Amino acid sequence: MKKTLFFLVAIALITQACSNNKEANNQLETNEQSWVADSKIIADVIESSEKNLEKEVFIKGMVEHVCKHSGKRVFILDTINDISIRVESGGNISGFNNELAGMTIAVKGVLKEKQITKEYIDNWESKVKAKIEEEEHDHDHDHETEGHSHSCSVEINSINKMRKWMKENKKDYYSVYFILGQDYEVL
Fold this sequence. Notes:
Strand order of the largest sheet: 2-3-4-6-5
Structural class: alpha/beta
Oligomer: single chain
Number of helices: 5
């Protein structure tokens, strides 16, 4: 009788454990699907960046670029607003495959900010202007020099955009936002 009772209790416990495990797996799948469904376009997250900074966010976009050297970051594009954001690997993401380029993904991660100071921008601008002056003194306009000239104009344009943003937002730094990824799903 004791053996039968012990056997029935053991079966009941095993059945209960399996049932709980199945329910937990179903809940986990529902939670995973929920964050993917809650993913927002990048522009929405950036618009409320001060509120979302250092908090978990859910974004979606097309993979514009996968870093080929390490595979540790991707740039995803909000195709509606033509804005992109860098996603760094972390959490369950050990890296990104090059095959993701051109695919749409949903990313769960923490919104981070890198502040580029006014001093850094001033220093960068000085170096670019020095490069431009050096090129102006060089009368030999070979292909390499023309490439540098284009590069300098792109850099000056970026610097001017940063300064404009800083003035409009009354900041003494320029904010670069990125996501420290925890998980992602291909859509």
